[in-house]
Write a structure and sequence with these properties.
The structure is a homotetramer. By secondary structure, chain A is α/β, with parallel strands linked by helices. Chain A is 33% helix and 24% strand. In chain A, the strands form 2 sheets. A 9-stranded mixed β-sheet of chain A has the order 5-4-1-8-9-10-11-12-13, sandwiched between helices. Chain A starts with 11 loop residues before the first strand and ends in a 12-residue tail after the last helix.
Chain lengths: 338, 338, 338, 338
């Protein structure tokens, strides 16, 4: 049981908004100067979360833009093959390009990325791409913070949230702060705060919440204070993550949950946050309490960091249950055999 | 009496933010193609309002940027000579230029303007220009909507309002919608709404409120519905203007006031809104009820449209009182003789 | 007699290309912070030269763009009233603005300007605005160097010169270097050199030629070396100006002429170069030798600097002849009485 | 024997300027929507030509910019490992990105590409990166036309050619027209023409020369007319390519050579032009007549199109000789066994 109210009689469970991108993961370990081949995957935080919940059985859709080229068509095909409704994904004709993320894995804990984000097509989705009828068809929407980084995507997000509130569509907000997409931390704090006031569920790390509060309350580092700040607006559930030390969920009714952790020896660190959010949102939408939902998120994250890709590795619910059942401490799982 | 609470022991009454510009008013009547000389005045809606309240006796200050050139120095000198605190007006060094407004008066009721707004310096003021200590020194701040038209001015406004709310500094919002400074009406609606939620007093025309509501409630044209919408957030007083038909003020406590009107045969139409806002804000800060404050605003507007300039023509309180006393119907006043 | 060959049977004498702008000259002496009124004039170096030769009796035309607003219409009207063919002046619809030059005259020798050049419409004229049929109708074209400062005007100039050479239309090049319109001196040197190679007559100051040669021959300061460098390409007449010390004209046949000077006590320094170029070009097109042409240019310059405006003050040929006849040393002329 | 004069006592044979990029070639055949892995290679026309001549034994260098990231370091390492002097390759710190070319091979004759060129670092090399001392050290420089597509690279090329002419460094110009990097064909024609006037050897297709002449001589399609046009400026050798129908070389002295062709069944079509230019330039620098040089170019091209990559596949001189000797008609060569 949890405090979220999802409207019945809606044919979609979750609509994600924003970034549809391509990951190009180095196939060899080591610095990218020396790696010679790359594998292509669907990427982008809301895309990954959408894939995650879809694989767990939710009916999901997407609002966003793709480039009018081979990568754009690859993304559409991938959504289609994953059973995701792509009727509100627009093909952009301005010449904007799919965002690219090249990844290198120097070691399991030393991973870095090289981004191509100039004129990124995912930031071109605009207010006209957000249809009131579509928002009304879904029980919930998911905003990933990077969509706030630039216009017209920024305004499209505020419009979508306005419409969601009008139609009692629950709003999930995964902060997903990526410094390289922003001009300044002050600008980020402004827009993240304006959005956070309007959301039902906010998921972020302690560092991300510090940034949100840098103008209104720069000295606070206390999770309880943070949670209550947003409960004063519209939040019902807050998740504050502390990395390996685990996560905490708060409810507007004053409950606090400590999240499970399943330490593993990772192949890479990418994808942990997205798979966590996917499992957690799925759990809440099943009506589980936040503690149970966090357990699903944590298990999903541990499975994904044990694999080479993000999107392709998102587990189904059976795999998550097997993982939790079999888990017996920090070691390298042969995830394929779970 | 009104429902606003101004903090005591603050050395400034009102800080205006945003546009400091130059008006170049044609000295001759007729189309600008044919006019040959122009007179230079301080311009910009918040600048005019700041001058207006200052002339009425309030202690005011300004947060904004001026160009590092002759026009920038002219503006600083003008503020200084008007007794306005300019300690938080920054000289911009990026090469941005003072916004210019050339005006032509083809006839008293057919006036038009030619704007120079590329790389306008007034939109360059940023979060760093907004000092918490300064906001704390004032009883109220004034936001003029054009400051929301572009970054970094847009973010600076949200930061200023956040700090004002933290320190119980009253926030006045004059919508002041200028289509040419915006990319689209949808974008305008988004940011105006986000700001309106945070303000104590909102002043706008019926058309401006229609635009604010175009995403959340596109079919509404009812002043009562509009007023109540913003009372649900933080507004305490709402003014909705209907041009020559007069204005209405609403309070969060449910009172409605009909504003006085003083029709005159104008020299030009520019400056009516700014002088109205100046008189109205002054009245509220004196503790008058909204009806009385609207009367001061309307008289001030009638005086200003009877003069050649905006900023230079802002009346003092004695002139307003004389005007009201002597007013006896729509005719051309010889304002200098009041 | 001179060495230029103008094609017969062409209905236009000279087509100027590029800048059509507005000058706003302070009516009062003193720093612009304190001046209160401005008078409006046509401005821009090629516009002024075009007016100058037109007043001297040449049939001239213009290729360029004006803004779709009151200032654009003012410029078209001015050209029309001056008898200049404006059939190839395009009204730009991109939202670009007329370049503005505010001038202040602190003293006759201490003048400065404030430029508005962001998104200047004069730099928007493009290759499509340059019609081969029009270039073919004229005996000569005039390029003013500022038109090279940005695309698409830059490419339009090279296209016009290519067509002029194809049709034996003489190319005059007035270097007219304005640092504020360029990104770097190196860039300027590159494009000025590329253009200079293609021109028949080049007019510039010693400092301007130093800049042209900064990449190919950075140490040269010798006028003879400079003149010969460009005679190796296509130049036939070179004018190198040394301010008050006078000017020198060189011909490809090896002759050198020393220009006359008519020192006067100026009202302001603006417009000297444009009126000089106008008189000089007129003289060459009359078939005078370069020495005589320089005398007309120098007299015209002295008349213009004794007046408040540039374009309005351009003299006719009778006034120039009277000035030369009456000149008797450096003193303030009452130009209106000549 | 040919008509080019290379200065003796210079420690570099050829300096290439401009594009250093990364190719990401799909490893699988088929549309890129479906390919899943990519192999990384050095790319960019002048980079490929530089690699080609280096592998043939010339001492070469490069002037250009690379990104301050993993791809930039990969490029530097590749040049270093190829024995190319990279002392004048600058690491750009503006945030510009390495240009990327994703290639797909749907069939040997149906290949297409997907370019990432926003804020491409190769177009950021500027006049300051072009050192007179370095140009003086080389017998020849190579300009690839794409470097003219934007500032500041455009101006850097003109500066380099000016310095090359000053120091009798031979200038090779490979037109290499890529429409997607340019704003309009007219703009391209202007800059290509300005550059072509200054070059000693010009290599292009018939279509490329048609574009160069579109302003000055739009109706010409005759190779002889084209060749003579540029001989009137500074050209000594002109190569005009007609695809599979072969190529023709002209000399300023009036000789014409028909190039050899070695038809093969290609793996892909990429890289043909670059390897051709590499072999041809090498031949001319060995003092061979243009016919012999074209044979080397054609053989090199046939070898490269039979391989998966461009840069990696550039042959050494022994391989070219073996290929020519063994060639016996159009069939698929097993290039690795030559």
């Amino acid at each position: 049981m949890n405090n979220l109210v999802f409207q019945k009689n809606r044919d979609l469970d979750l609509i994600a908004l924003g970034r549809l991108a391509v990951d190009l993961n180095a196939n060899e370990m080591g610095p990218m100067e020396e790696t010679s081949t790359f594998s292509k995957y669907l990427g982008g935080s809301p895309a990954n979360i959408c894939i995650a919940v879809s694989r767990l059985g939710l009916k999901s859709g997407f609002i966003g833009r793709v480039a009018d080229d081979q990568f754009g068509r690859f993304i559409i095909n991938y959504l289609k093959d994953s059973g995701i409704d792509y009727s509100n994904v627009t093909v952009d004709e301005s010449g904007a390009k799919t965002g690219l993320t090249f990844t290198e894995i120097k070691s399991p804990t030393d991973c870095s990325i090289l981004m191509y984000r100039y004129n990124a097509v995912d930031l071109k989705f605009d207010i006209c791409d957000v249809k009131e009828e579509y928002i009304k068809r879904s029980k919930a929407i998911l905003i990933s913070g990077t969509a706030l980084a630039a216009s017209p995507s920024r305004e499209a997000v505020f419009a979508a949230v306005e419409l969601a509130r009008k139609h009692k569509t629950v709003v999930f907000f995964d902060i997903d702060y990526r410094p390289y997409t922003w001009k300044s931390v002050e600008e980020t704090a402004i827009y993240y705060s304006l959005l956070a006031e309007r959301c039902d569920v906010i998921i972020g790390t302690r560092e991300e919440f510090d940034m949100l509060e840098m103008i209104s309350d720069p000295d606070n580092e206390d999770d309880d204070v943070t949670a209550n700040k947003w409960f004063d607006y519209n939040a019902k559930i807050m998740v504050i993550k502390h990395g390996k030390e685990g996560s905490y969920a708060y409810t507007a009714e004053g409950k606090k949950y400590t999240g499970a952790v399943f330490p593993v020896i990772p192949v890479k660190t990418f994808g942990a946050g997205d798979s966590y959010a996917g499992g957690f949102i799925y759990g809440l939408m099943q009506g589980y309490d936040p503690g149970k939902a966090m357990e699903l998120g944590a298990a999903s994250a541990s499975i994904v960091v044990s694999s080479h890709s993000c999107s392709d590795a998102m587990p189904d619910i059976n795999k998550i249950h097997r993982f939790i059942k079999q888990y017996d401490g920090e070691k390298s799982y042969d995830v394929k055999n779970i």
